[in-house]
Amino acid sequence: MLIGVVGKPSAGKSTFFAAATLIDVARAAYPFTTIEPNKGVGFVRVECVDKEFHTQCNPRSGYCVNHTRFVPVEMIDVAGLVPGAHEGKGLGNKFLDDLRQADVLIHVVDASGSTNEKGEQVESGTHNPALDVRFLEEEMELWMLGILENNFGKFARSAFSTKSQVIDALAKGLSGLGVTNAQVDAALLKSSLSEKLTDWKPEDHRKFIHTLRLI
């Protein structure tokens, strides 16, 4: 599993990454300190079953101390995301391309409200951190929507005789995001969209992507 550490510039992503991996990375109080993604390994602590067998295990990966397993997890710290990233603003295109490698995301938010949506310093408490959560979700959806629409014309012109063919085509078009057939099937069901892609309106594209992101 690869965990992506995401958020706007200057939110503390690299500080969190350094604490989780014990890797010293560049950190500074200005936007876009991180250009190239930082990669490292952190450890998740879980109770080890060896305690029940009154023994001490010797795992092939990670380590075990006093019946506590330290399971290695790969992490990547990517460049900060700003509004309009899906259009290439800031380091948007690079951020999103790096992001697609991750299986899970940790969103680091500046809860003090002392940086605006661009990561610039402002008076503490004057920026609403909830807006950072909303815009990151929005940017991710618009990025996914762009990928869908780049391929949608080809999908709509194809003659699909079964639902499984529609699912296969959509999953293949979004495969770069790690989307599976099962996720596409679930998104179609939950969004109540027609299996006939030529019936879809532009707002249906967004509805499908929004539903898919939440799965």
Automatic annotation (TrEMBL):
Entry protein name: Redox-regulated ATPase YchF
InterPro entries for this protein: G_OBG (IPR031167), GTP-bd (IPR006073), P-loop_NTPase (IPR027417)
Any one GO CC term of the record: cytoplasm
PANTHER family registered for this protein in UniProt: OBG GTPASE FAMILY, OBG-TYPE G DOMAIN-CONTAINING PROTEIN
GO molecular-function terms, A-Z: ATP hydrolysis activity; GTP binding
Superkingdom per UniProt: Archaea
Pfam families, per the entry: MMR_HSR1
Gene3D superfamilies per the UniProt record, alphabetical: P-loop containing nucleotide triphosphate hydrolases (3.40.50.300)
Annotated keywords: Nucleotide-binding
Domain OBG-type G stretches: 1-215
The keyword Nucleotide-binding belongs to this UniProt entry's keyword annotation: yes
